[in-house]
Amino acid sequence: MTAARVAVRIPGRARLVVALAAFVGLTAFTWPFVVAPGTFGSTYAPPLIFGALLVLVLAVVIAEISAGGIDAKALAMLGVLSAVNAGLRPLGAGTAGVETVFFILVLAGRVFGPGFGFTLGCTSLFASAIITGGVGPWMPYQMFGCAFVGLIAGLLPRLRGRAEVLMLAGYGAVSGYLFGFLLNLSFWPFSTDPNSSIAYLPGLPFTEQWHRYLLFDLATSLGWDTGRAVTTGLCVLIVGPAVLTVFRRAARRANFEAPVRFAPHGTE
Question: Is 94 left (phi over 0), alpha (psi -120 to 50) or beta?
């Protein structure tokens, strides 16, 4: 099977920054399993996380630019796709869980690579929040969640043809559930009656805490997540082949990794 080549590769130090950003994101989502609510201060944690996220995303872009991983053409593509996603999101967000942006994240992460997918997930949600007035404590979590969707898409096995489309459609469906699963972690410790059997209780063993959260996720968001999963999977199946072709053609024409050579003065 022919290997799928990513258009924008991640240089060594940028990989380290992406890994650090992913670690910070996972920590922001999973801290309820190791720290009691209020320890970090629920009022101040989201802005701090948001600020850290922006710094890390900026560091990813700067690191890739300085190492030659992202050039002006790749940045232009990032801006265009961020604007497209920001425009698409109001068409579906909030309607039975339907999301219209995840299939672009999946396909772009697949073609342009995990670093590009990670950054696109962040910038898409940031642009969308600014346009729709959706700025709030939930925004950094949404940005991280979409960043993971784009990042993982770029790390999927290298297939081509129909097998690739089916794999991406399956991943698109899974990512719909994954996004909801992660987002629920951001408010679960503060949103449920402590006497409930699905509430977060500080000090419980991890296995019991995990069981409570699974029940909470199933009870509160399974329907919404299913709408997102079905929409994303169908969009990839229906328009995925055409969009992959367009993205790969754009990548070839842009020639993101073309070496820069300087000819002596007076020569062609």
Answer: left
Which residues lie across from 98 on neighbouring strands? 95
Please tell me the predicted confidence (pLDDT) of residue 121: 86
- Cα distances from 177 to residues 19, 160, 161, 200, 210, in angstroms, run 22, 25, 25, 21, 17
Q: Tokens 């309607």 sit at which residue?
A: 95
Q: Is the dihedral of CA 149, 150, 156, 162 positive or negative?
A: positive
CA angle 60, 66, 67 (to 5 degrees): 90
pLDDT band at 262 (very low <50, low <70, confident <90, very high): very low
CB atoms within 10 A of CB 205: 8
Amino acid at 252: R
Side chain identity, residue 237: L
Q: How many CB atoms lie within 10 A of CB 158?
A: 13
